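note to self — DONT lose this again. spent like an hour looking for the file last time. sequence + predicted structure for the chain T wanted, 611 res
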Amino acid sequence: MLLGDHDSGQGQAGTRESDGVDGYSAVNPTPAETVRETPSVAGSEDTWPAHQTEIAPTDIPANPSKTGTRWRLLAGVSALVLTVLTIAAVYLLTKRPSTVDQLVILTVPSGAEVKLDSKDYGHSPVKLEQLSIGTYTLSITKEGFEPIVVQVTISESLPQPLEYKLRPVPPSESADLSPEEAIKQYQQQAEDAFAQGLYGMIYEGSALNYADLIRGLEPLNPFALDMAERIRKAAHQSAQAAISRGDLARAQEIYNFLTEYYPKDEEARTAAAKLESQLAARRGEVRGLVRKADEALQVGNLIEPKGASAYYYSNQALAINRQDADARRVRNQVKEKLTAQSEHAFAHGDSEPAIKQLEQIMQLFPEDKQLRTRLREMTAGRNTEAAKATDPNAHRVRGLELYRNQDYATAIPELQFAVLNGLGRPEVVFALARSYMKTGELDKAASYFRKVPESGDDSYRSSIAALGEISLQQGETATAVENFKEARRLGGSTLYTIASLDDKIEKIERRERDKAAEPTPLTIQVRHLHGGLLGGSCAGPLTVNSTGVRFDGAEHQFSANLIGVGVRITKDEMTVQFQSNSQKFKVARSEAERFREALARFQQVYSPSSK
């Protein structure tokens, strides 16, 4: 029981006032005076009655054993908590992650369907995020290429990105050939495709396609590696030529091809990015291009003239904005009309023109797979008929006859058949090359001119000179002069006599000299002195160029052609004679001297006597 519950007769301790010990209460004992109950112990002389109370002295702990136990318990719990936290921290630091942040899968070419454990992730390039670590079955498929199925173990240490080079499916006609025979056949087909400018924008049947087939059989084949590099360089040249003539859509197609099949070509990526910036800056031109495309479509200018046709204008518009529905409508209408023309020709037995036109349509619309299927069908039908007349010599004779009669377009397939079937003699190759040249297909022409074997034959000397003609038309004057001089050194030919070669060389060199000597227009800032009683002046530019001299001031303008213009300089003033009147200008003497010298050069170059 508590001390306050005792009867007052047992002592006055419960009612005494504080004796100076802090915390003492007159009613309840302080912590220093704990009350304890001592049970009775049988047999003891000093046995206390049961439940007898006792006041402990103030300087003795109430229960030291219990206090120590509490401290030990608290220390144990604290140690346990610290141990658990330490283990958790170590686990978190050493725990292996269950996912990888990202996995990138690339293919060459791109656009292949990618699956992991049968789950479709779209077309390459593919970027997967937070992919669980483990082993997967990776499937890669693309039409025209052999499928890839591999086991891939995804982990933090897996090299990134995963890149796969797709191998084209070999054509059925080479199925029975040995690897050596197949490589030989692919080499010839690659050269022929390259000569025709079929680099790889349409992959099937292209030079790159055949080079890849060779590398599938022999990865380090020197011919295939060299052909791939030749294709890359030729494509870059074609892209630059397209840009120079303003055909940015064609340049875009070529750079898309290069970045897809040559992913490590930094030059192509840089050029493609620069081109896209140029196209973005021309977004305001789309409406005008579509209007021109519609106008060309209405008058029947489907693909000709090349720089002003419905196809050209719609393609330029789509290069700027791929989503423009009107431009796409015009482009589709062009394709439909061209395809209908090809089908009409084929139905009337004109298989060669029909196939040639469909091949051209495929070049214009490479994304249309149905055209490719239809071309195979037409080609198969044509080949069935051609099997009846497979004599290469007959084709050679007919091709040369057509060439001599200047029917170049019709001569080309005949001559090409002869070349492909082992009758590629110098005169046949030269006739084929010149036929391409006459029909405006300069790249193909140049390729075949280079195939004419070096000899003392007239066709070889003519080929060298013809390459000069092609270089000149393509703006490569230095190469043109070099070829003309080489042909002259060899003695000229029937088509290119020494006199005609001398004349060509002289004209080019004179044009280059004239171009180098042409003066540069000059503009200086002057102050026009008005004169008169009021004086006054106005500032503006004074310009001299091939058209004459002109001053555009804030208050006055003067101009005159080069004839009769004169300049007189006195101190810091310059007087210019504008034919019927003279005007004074305030200008630094050094600037005035520069102006007078520039005027003298223009008058010398552009005076009637010099012309």
